[in-house]
Design a protein that fits this description.
The chain has about 280 residues and is mostly beta strands. It folds into 2 domains: about 5-125, Jelly Rolls, CATH 2.60.120.10; about 130-265, Jelly Rolls, CATH 2.60.120.10. Helix content is about 0%, strand content about 50%. It has one helix at about 150, and strands at about 5, 10-15, 20-25, 35-40, 45-50, 55-70, 75-80, 80-85, 90-105, 125, 135, 140-145, 155-165, 170-175, 180-185, 185-190, 195-200, 205, 215, 225-230, 235-240, 245-250, 265. It has a 9-stranded antiparallel β-sheet with strand order 1-18-15-20-13-12-11-22-23. Strands 2, 3, 4, 5, 6, 7, 8, 9 and 10 form a 9-stranded antiparallel β-sheet that branches. Strand 2 (about 10-15) and strand 3 form a beta hairpin. The mean pLDDT is about 95.
């Protein structure tokens, strides 16, 4: 059965001057998981040292505020519009001038998914400039956050999904990948093995391999979440195959501008990510 909890129920611990960490996903909470997920909070002037093992790959997703990540390649500003890849062996320091919160994800022993792990490099993405894709069957929208094309690794895949009020997706499950969601804003209902559970901003939803699931946004507000898979290539199986979703390019980014790149239509049934994704 899915593991569902809110970040507000997880105790924070100090991990640096003006820095706190909430350990959201780990093997103590989800036995057997190979994904680590933390929520990092930095006070104004707070700092946090980040050091990746040579066998791990990670990422940072900004949630609020602004932090500066100082690393061997210089300095990178991170806001709620940014996600960055932390390659194996990466070291750096996060510093917030006015306070910030971020998600920190990590795939330990990532070489089992990426044989060229040592060749990966630091990259940062402004997802506001990425193309928005429209679902063929419903009103959902998708923005890719981490893909093999964007970040060069098949160890992890991430995307943001936007459900307008009242939107319901089709029942399905995934095979050969771990999968979790983090609710960024809004509320709704998640169905896990057909059982309903209310969800809201700050919730983490972790699905065991092959568990059927789908979501429904509340009638009066948008539901937005980030979801991540490890590894990046896996199978998706629908209860009703007529609902297999094709994602079509909208020709715009989230702010209505021309996106910085184009993605062709593709099906969620694809196991291998299309080369332009």
């Amino acid at each position: 059965m899915a593991t569902i909890f809110n970040e507000g129920d997880v105790q924070a611990s100090a991990v640096g001057p003006g820095a706190r960490r909430q350990q959201l996903l780990h093997s103590g909470r989800v036995p057997g998981t190979a994904i680590l997920l933390d929520r990092i909070a930095l006070d104004a002037g707070g700092t946090l040292t980040i050091a990746m093992l040579a066998t791990s790959i990670g990422w940072l997703q900004g949630l609020s505020g602004e932090a500066t990540l100082t690393h061997g390649g210089g300095q990178t500003a991170l806001t709620d519009a940014h996600i960055c890849l932390l390659p194996a062996g990466f070291s750096g320091e996060l510093r917030a001038s006015v306070g910030a919160t971020l998600l920190y994800g990590e795939i330990p022993n990532a070489q089992r998914f990426d044989s060229a792990l040592a060749q990966r490099s630091f990259r940062v993405l402004d997802w506001r400039r990425e193309p928005v894709l429209d679902s063929e069957h419903d009103a959902r929208k998708r923005i890719y956050l981490i893909t093999p094309k964007l970040f060069g690794t098949k160890a992890v895949k991430g995307e943001m999904i936007i459900y307008p009020p009242g939107t319901v997706a089709a029942n399905h499950h995934h095979e050969d990948a771990e999968h979790f969601m983090y609710v960024l804003r809004g509320s709704g209902t998640v169905y896990a093995s057909e059982q309903p559970f209310p969800v809201r901003a700050g919730d983490v939803i972790y699905y065991p391999d092959r568990e059927r699931h789908y979501l429904e946004a509340a009638a009066d507000e948008e539901l937005v979440f980030s979801e991540f898979f490890a590894p990046a290539e896996f199978r998706t199986i629908w209860v009703d195959e007529s609902q297999i979703c094709t994602w079509n390019p909208s020709g715009r980014d989230i702010e209505g501008r021309a996106p910085i790149r184009e993605i062709k239509s593709h099906s969620s049934a694809d196991v291998v990510n299309p080369t332009d994704v």
